[in-house]
Write a structure and sequence with these properties.
Length: 452
Amino acid sequence: MAWDTYHTVTGPSADTRVGVDASSVALPGRLVGQGWREHARDGSLEDDDVELLIPQDDVEDPELSIVIPTLNEQLTVAEFMSWCHEGMAEAGIRGEILIADSSTDATPELALAAGARVLRLPKRGIGRAYREAIPYARGRYVLMGDADCTYDFRQIKPFVDRFREGYEFVMGSRWKGTIEPEAMPWMHQYLGTPITTWLLNRQYATHFTDIHCGIRGITRDELVAMDLDSDSWDYSSEMLAKSVHMGLRTTEVPVPLLKDRNGRVSHHKRRGWLSPFQAAWLSQRSLFVYGPDFFVLKPGFVMFLIGALITLPLSFGPITLGPIKFSLYWMLLGMTLTVTGLQAFLLGCIAQVLFDYRGRARDRWLRLFPYSRSVVVAAATAVTGLGCVIPLVVYYLTHHEQLTLRASVQDSLAVTGLTLVVTGFSLFVFTLVLHAAASATKRSVRRSPVSI
């Protein structure tokens, strides 16, 4: 089929002169004419070039956008397109297929001929392909996946049904569905996915069964609100973490995983044996980065309490309990735990505010740490600490500027005083940062808790 039967647009917007509704694409752009335009000898695009190719029989006002990143999938893309059309017909939904393509083979031509919109992108990574495709998705719902025919898009009706029931984030689950023999490397099936899924569920208090499933759906409004930042495979973990922070109404549907077609080599194998480990590292990094409060908030508070319980009772001298004598060295341990735990707890509060899409964490910490009261408490704590240090300073000045380790009341009280000074200063700095972060990260309040 001749290329001049299609429209080619750059920027992300069409021009009504070629019969395309400009409101159907999100951003302003410019018309570059009809046909295919190559920017390099291998057919790839230059770094700043983005092209949207629109088929002649383009779907108007789609309810569903199937958004698929592709890289040299000419072996399967035509059949994949057929599966998508069959799946949408079975689900009774009007939809578009948007291919975010960075191929150097015939993938874009085959997809376009089968009725897909093709967004031509430089090769930048799967996460960035999704991010750059989001402004072009016109449907109310977005279904994401792969074009390698390992996920059966003829069976998308359960996703559509869940959307129409009011769910905002619908994850596929191979563990609730089926995994065809040889469809998944044993390391992924028995180690990687089960372990990382368990870790996410512990960290985010969720009940997912398959966090790396390649097919998932989300409402377009929530996808835009997520403001995805990942460029590579870590987009998957970022989506899950943010779906929890946003309180999206979430569910899973069983899906089958099919093995690769003969002759097709997976992206991990194309990139070498190290690729799965790199992907796992990036995925786990996202889970940690978008949920740091798990590691610091409650553990920090417990550490702070233990440190305070050790330090404060020893403020006026050593205490002996049976065979154990708690002295100045125990106080130094308590001071370390107190300061470290407090810092961790306060950083955990800030972390919750940074990823607070519902406003609950922000409101809670602002209520517990109002500016005026917190600053006064911080100042009073620091001043009290300085007062506790004064006896030791006086002793130092009256003994010819010399100190010896005597385990005296002055020594013990000074350790408590220094702990209070650090605590007061930390609380003051935290109050400033908390209120600054709360002002900088105000978002619309989400109403529904995550349900999975």
